[in-house]
Amino acid sequence: MKVYVEEFHVSTKSREEVVVITAQVERIVERSGVKNGLALIYVPHATAVVTANENEPRLKEDILNKVRALFPRGAGYRHDEIDDNANAHLANVFLGFHVVMPVVNGRLRRGTWQDVMLIEMDGPRARRDVVVVVMGE
User: Fold this and answer.
1) CB 131 within 8 A of CB 25
2) Global pTM?
3) What is the DSSP letter of 126?
4) Where do the DSSP E strands lie in the chain?
5) Other beta carbons less than 10 A from residue 108's beta carbon
6) Helix crossing, 57-70 with 86-95: angle to 10°?
7) Which of 41, 65, 90, 109 has fewest C-beta within 10 Å?
8) CA–centroid distance for 115 within its chain
9) How many helices (H) and strands (E) does the chain have?
10) pLDDT tens digits, residue range 70-105?
């Protein structure tokens, strides 16, 4: 089995935002040379989320609004006593910091409307790392 690892970086501009990273992930899958296997997309951060969904502006706004409603800032979290970002940590724990997608015939196998997205919850950040591990034959 072949294992290929590559990282890239994303800058965010807002406290909370959705950044589409599909193109970067697909280029890495292509460079990996893996024809069939799995791609792990992982963000090594405790205040960011990674997921896959439709890249539609109103949906991205809906996603952010729902995440804000589920994990509101300033809701009396104990962690906010030392750092004002407990809501971002909670979003990371409950929504996830990685996604695994199949690689089929050398391409990331995603649904018609699926794009890979990093959800920033504690920005803006000059650098968010994204690690992609492609494994297979």
Assistant:
1) no
2) 0.96
3) S
4) 2-10, 17-20, 37-42, 48-53, 98-104, 107-108, 115-120, 128-136
5) 22
6) 110
7) 65
8) 10
9) 3, 8
10) 999 999 999 999 999 999 999 999 999 999 999 999
